[in-house]
Amino acid sequence: MAIGSRFCFVGVIAAVFFRTQLNQIIAVPIPTQVQPLAQQQEMIDLGIVFKANTVVETVKAFLKSRNIDHDQASPSSSAAE
């Protein structure tokens, strides 16, 4: 099943943040004894994202530092830009 023929690169998710609540029962060692606690992790829709422009700039800088021609590295570079 094909939804469309286009692909739009918007960026890369580098990290996400979780909120930890004490719900799941786990044994946690404390200084005097092992204490059973409940713990739960929930994603809170916050994260670190690198936008597509940043990723493209990084790739171009890497290619330039290695003396690789950008046009030779990507055969469809005219379609992407």
Q: What is the first-to-last residue Cα distance?
A: 28 Å
The fraction of residues assigned to DSSP E strands is over 45%
* Count of runs of 4 or more consecutive helical residues: 3
Low-confidence stretches: 77-81
Element order: H for helix, E for strand: EEHHH
What gyration radius follows from the Cα positions, in whole Å?
Answer: 23 Å
Shape, per Cα inertia axes:
elongated
| Strand-pairing-aware structural class | alpha+beta
Largest sheet: 2 strands, antiparallel
The residue-averaged pLDDT reads 75
- Taken together, the total number of domains comes to 2
Q: Helix fraction?
A: 25-40%
Strands in their spatial order, largest beta sheet: 1-2
Write the layout of secondary structure elements.
Layout: E1 11-29, E2 34-51, H1 52-65, H2 70-73, H3 77-80
Would you give an account of this structure?
There is one protein chain. The chain is an alpha+beta fold and 81 residues long. It folds into 2 domains: 12-45, no CATH class; 50-81, no CATH class. The chain has helices at residues 52-65, 70-73, 77-80, and strands at 11-29, 34-51. The chain has a two-stranded antiparallel sheet with strand order 1-2. The longest helix is centred in the last third of the chain and has 14 residues, at 52-65. The radius of gyration is 23 Å and the shape is elongated.
